Amino acid sequence: GGTSGWHSHSGIVVIAVKSGELTRYDKKFCATTFGAGETFVEHGDHPVLVRNEGAEPAVIYSVYVLPDASLRRIDEPNPGCPVQ
């Protein structure tokens, strides 16, 4: 049931799902689910929200490629999506 909240990044983040599954929502409210062994990328000023909607905890590994470590996460307002 955990959620990242709506956010973006100042660079590129590569996320690998080790176990469990995560669902990523984009600003158009499109949902994509990633399970164990899958990867996805977040980048730029594209707001996203990531949630664990599965029954088990999700374990991930993240690699950040950023121009400045202080900008690892930028909180964004909800773009009107019913998902929080």
Unreliable runs: none
Calculate the terminal CA-CA distance, rounded to whole Å. 11 Å
Strand order of the largest sheet: 5-2-7
Q: Which strand-content bin applies to the residues?
A: over 45%
Mean pLDDT: 92
Quaternary state reads: single chain
SS-derived structural category: mainly beta
Biggest sheet overview: 3 strands, antiparallel
By DSSP (H or I, 4+ residues per run), the number of helices equals 0
- N-to-C SSE string, H for helix and E for strand: EEEEEEEE
Helix content: under 10%
User: How many DSSP E strands?
Assistant: 8
Q: Give the C-alpha Rg.
A: 12 Å
Query: What is the overall silhouette?
Result: globular
Topology:
Elements: E1 7-8, E2 12-19, E3 21-26, E4 31-35, E5 39-43, E6 48-51, E7 59-65, E8 74-75
Antiparallel strand pairs: 1-8, 2-5, 2-7, 3-4, 3-6
Question: What report would you give on this structure?
Answer:
With 84 residues, this protein is mainly beta. 0% of the residues lie in helices and 46% in strands. It has no helices and eight strands. The strands form three sheets. Strands 5-2-7 form a three-stranded antiparallel sheet, with no helix packed on it. It has a three-stranded antiparallel sheet with strand order 4-3-6, with no helix packed on it. It has a two-stranded antiparallel sheet with strand order 1-8. The radius of gyration is 12 Å and the shape is globular. The mean pLDDT is 92.
